[in-house]
Structures are given as C-alpha cells and as structure tokens.
Specification:
Helices cover 8% and strands 25% of the residues. By secondary structure, it is mainly beta.
C-alpha cells in the first residue's frame, strides 16, 4: 500500500490506504473525480479520472531484480501491489475486491513514461514486452483502476477477482 500527497515518481509504503469511492487512494496526488495526471490536466482537466489507483504485480519486481534492477513496492508509483493476482491479465471492467471492503474496477493499462529511466537507467525497456508474432508492445507496468466501493486496504489483504460479462475487452 503506497500513496504520496505530491507529484513524485515513487510513493512511500503505508500500513494501510483508505480508498474512498470515486476518488482513489486518500491523500494521494492522483486521487480525485477528474484527471490528476500532471501532463493531461493541462489540456483535459474536466475528464473523468480513470487513473484513481495504480496496481502492479509484485512478481514483476522479482523479474526486474533478476535482470539487475532492484525494485520494491511503491517505487514505481503504484498504490497497490498484488501477489498471485496478475492485474495485466484482467480485462477492462474486472472488479477486484480488496481487503473484504474496497472494490476497484480495472480501467486500462498504465503507460510507463520516460521518468522510469531517471529512477533506474534502462528500466523503461524492461517494462515493455514485444509480441514476436504480432510485433505489438504490451505494457508490463501495471493497470489503472477506479474505486467503486470504499474500504481500507492493508498489506497482505486478500484480493478477489470478478470478471465482467463476455465479451471481454483487453
């Protein structure tokens, strides 16, 4: 569980994070009903905030560490780090029940920005995956979500997935 009240690349870990419905992680700079992404706020300030929360899988950190990039929870700016749940494999509209109370809805993939190389030089290329057959890129830097039901989330809380009706949208 991580949050930061100002724009910064990494977010400090917390003992818990409260997720108010329709807002995001309480006290986090990206929380709000409308866009809080620093760049997009300048030209689309009234659009709905579909990036109220950012989730990444802890297994990615294991992979990055094996490649020489030591990374820990919160350091890549995520609010919630999962284990044994692959957010990247979830279709848009999936619901994640976190800690028995909070519910977040998957809205899309997080696009990594070049600032990731300021954190660890060369890391940007590690959070992309190239499909050798189609030649398309897949972002591996997590997903974005909105908070549908309020709750408090703590480290090691269970995460349950509810898939949306078919057909699924990636």
């Amino acid at each position: 569980m991580s949050s930061h009240g100002t724009y910064a690349f990494s977010k400090p870990n917390r003992a818990s994070v409260r997720l108010p419905a329709g807002l995001g992680a309480e006290g986090d700079v990206h929380a709000g009903e409308t866009i809080r992404h620093q760049f997009r706020m300048t030209y689309e300030p009234d659009l709905p905030n579909l990036r109220q929360g950012h989730l990444m899988r802890e297994e990615l950190f294991d992979e990055l560490t094996a490649r020489g990039y030591a990374v820990a929870a919160g350091e890549l700016g995520e609010n919630i780090t999962t284990r044994d749940v692959d957010p990247l494999g979830l279709p848009s509209g999936s619901l994640l029940r976190l800690g028995g109370q909070a519910v977040v809805e998957v809205t899309g993939l997080r696009n990594p920005c070049a600032k990731i190389n300021d954190f660890r030089q060369g890391l940007l290329k590690e959070v992309f995956a190239l499909d050798p057959v189609s030649g398309t890129f897949t972002f591996r830097s997590g997903i974005t979500a909105v908070v549908r039901r309020a709750g408090t989330v703590r480290p090691y809380d269970a995460a349950e997935v509810e898939l949306p009706p078919l057909p699924h949208r990636p």
